[in-house]
Amino acid sequence: MNSYFSYNKPWILQRADPYVIKSEDGQYYFTASVPEYDRIVLRRSDSLTGLSEADEKEIWHKHESGPQSIHIWAPELHYLFGKWYIYYSGGDKDSIWDIRPYVLECKGNDPMNDGWIEKGKMVCCKDDEFSFRAFSLDATVFNACGKWYYVWAEKVGVGKQISNLYIARLKNGYTLDTVQVLLTSPDYDWERKGFWVNEGPSALIRNGKVFLTYSASDTGINYCMGMLSADEGSDLLDPLSWKKERYPVLSSSEKHMVYGPGHNSFTTDENGDDIMVYHARTEKKIVGDPLYNPNRHAMLMPVRWKDKKPVFEFE
Amino acid sequence: MNSYFSYNKPWILQRADPYVIKSEDGQYYFTASVPEYDRIVLRRSDSLTGLSEADEKEIWHKHESGPQSIHIWAPELHYLFGKWYIYYSGGDKDSIWDIRPYVLECKGNDPMNDGWIEKGKMVCCKDDEFSFRAFSLDATVFNACGKWYYVWAEKVGVGKQISNLYIARLKNGYTLDTVQVLLTSPDYDWERKGFWVNEGPSALIRNGKVFLTYSASDTGINYCMGMLSADEGSDLLDPLSWKKERYPVLSSSEKHMVYGPGHNSFTTDENGDDIMVYHARTEKKIVGDPLYNPNRHAMLMPVRWKDKKPVFEFE
């Protein structure tokens, strides 16, 4: 840890939906949504906190027009099926809310330097008549018992819509092998503030369990985190395998001046301890539409464990 | 029981979505969808099986045009807040799939003779921005611990849609007091045949539990029944209170020549034993679109109990 670093304080400024992965060779990578929503950036460092000072490289830029030409959101870097992939979402400047999930595949083994191939829109299973037909975003992937799963948010409904989380198994880095399964819908008041939203899933697998955190409500100070869990060995495509927490696992704290915490990811620090990477604001009063206010900053929080479940606390 | 009656055989011909209620004074009432989908009918008898021979009276006819002018479906008669109500659904002949839930209120205490007032479309809670915006139907109501609940099916999604079940608490016979809560979505293969459907809910309250059956998949021979249950004293607006059965509780039986059983309701016979009223077909091969084939017949089945849970068996 460098001397300037503090948990639960802005760590990397104006980087929302922050994502960190530690690769097999011990290198840390960071990516996130940038306020311009126009590109995908990547940083690399040999230490976790070193990412804040690392050079940021643009590895992909939005298209001029058509799909992927606006609202480039929530990239995540993962290594699966022997390759590096980046999962992200984007809209169409002529239809800005036509957000869909896309995939980049790395040409080599060095995400910073080897270049990326567009694999296009995420491909759903041939029997799936529902996935990626509406506003869909925030994909993450995880491996449980040797199988890869893809979890994403997608809106349903006519008129005003509701954002749910879905899961499916992956066939390869850019294709689903099974039809969608609904994991969670905004059931409670804390998931229904401003908008009815479940999004930003992230998996943490420990103690034989899959803990799947997600974010809820609108992107302002109501934004908060919920959690599902399942036995790692259970059928993760069966909703009965999953248990949802009745209350948020993390929400705004006036005392700590942390507002709208969410859209997290998980990594481990140099000691092997679990660290949550998330974004939050330090201002209670948000100027303008929260989606276009740039002051969501990446922060870090050590994950504590209680009764074999992760606990998220500002101090 | 009259001598012509057999369980799990056609009891009242060409009456789908059959519904029976035994009133406080011991009279039995029957209503159902008629093949023409153009009217609401009612029968009364002093015995359950007597309903098959009872005169059928039309108590309401579809409108000439506009809402409620086509596809009049699944009426149910209930007594709540001191009045008789009929819950049903209907479409608009100029937009036949704009199905919405409607309510009739009886002018007096005699459902057969006192006439009915149209209360119009079911009114959702003022904070509810989602309910009854899309194809919504099959409402039922039940009372648990002194509170009335309304459960209905509504489709979500763009393009091809998915029919889910929702619950809310009632403020009066035609107004919801709370926003919608998602109870179940078609999660399993048996709920996803032809169409992804959960519909036709019906509550049975026994042994301190609410058993909520529903129907799944398309209206043909894939149609089958699933079940949820909750403790009667739990928060029924909390999805965590509900447990879904992994497998259907009733489905087609070649041996018994019963195809596509579902859209049931519950009543008690003259001995106080629980009886399920449901529809099914006796032909495996359905001529034409199942929705417009008239041969869904009302049948009766005694409800058996095992480990304090209802069991549905053809023999």
3D structure, described in words:
The structure is a homodimer of 315-residue chains. Helices cover 0% and strands 50% of the residues of chain A. Chain A is globular and about 50 Å long. In chain A, the strands form 6 sheets. In chain A, strands 9, 10, 11, 12 and 13 form a 5-stranded antiparallel beta sheet that branches. In chain A, strands 1-2-3-4 form a 4-stranded antiparallel beta sheet, with no helix packed on it. Chain A has strands at residues 16-22, 28-33, 39-45, 57-61, 70-80, 83-92, 95-106, 116-121, 136-144, 147-156, 162-172, 175-176, 181-184, 198-206, 209-216, 224-231, 243-244, 259-268, 274-281, 297-302, 304-306, 309-311. In chain A, strand 1 and strand 2 (28-33) form a beta hairpin. Chain A is mainly beta. Chain A has one domain: Glycosyl hydrolase domain, family 43 (Tachylectin-2, Chain A, 5 Propeller). The A-B interface holds A 129-130, 133-134, 156-160, 162, 179, 181-182, 185, 187-188, 192, 196, 238-240, 244, 246 and B 129-130, 133-134, 156-160, 162, 179, 181-182, 185, 187-188, 192, 196, 238-240, 244, 246.
List the helices and strands and how they pair.
Two copies of one chain form a homodimer.
Chain A (H helix, E strand, L loop, with lengths): L15 E7 L5 E6 L5 E7 L11 E5 L8 E11 L2 E10 L2 E12 L9 E6 L14 E9 L2 E10 L5 E11 L2 E2 L4 E4 L13 E9 L2 E8 L7 E8 L11 E2 L14 E10 L5 E8 L15 E6 L1 E3 L2 E3 L4
Antiparallel strand pairs in A: 1-2, 2-3, 3-4, 5-6, 6-7, 7-8, 9-10, 10-11, 11-12, 11-13, 14-15, 15-16, 16-17, 18-19, 19-20, 21-22
